[in-house]
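Quick one, T. Sequence first:
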Amino acid sequence: MQIGEVSARTELSLRTIRHYEETGLVIPSARSQGGFRLYTETDVARLMVIRRMKPLGFTLDEMRDLLEVTDRLDARGTPTGAERGEREALLERVRAYEAAAAHKIEDLRVQLSRAEEFAATLRARVEQARS
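Structure tokens:
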């Protein structure tokens, strides 16, 4: 699919998708004869991972690292004895990202709660002024 369809599906701007290409996070799988970027479902899935990480404050390097780890995990079949250790190390890195995401989500919940309290205080002030 072309970048416009990818933009609509991921709710990312064309500029953002191009930026992720420039930084090496998501490279289009192909180009049309006319030079248009062409993306696969796998490319879209990668963009969705990035889109979900961004509001949690993960850096581009962290995004790149997680995508590399998941690519390596996905590329493996049934692991041999030697590969099991590497697989477990990769899974441990994914677990670390999951824990970091959970921590960041909790921080966002606290911020949201404070914002809601602030809005309620303002509403009360407006209502009080009307009385």
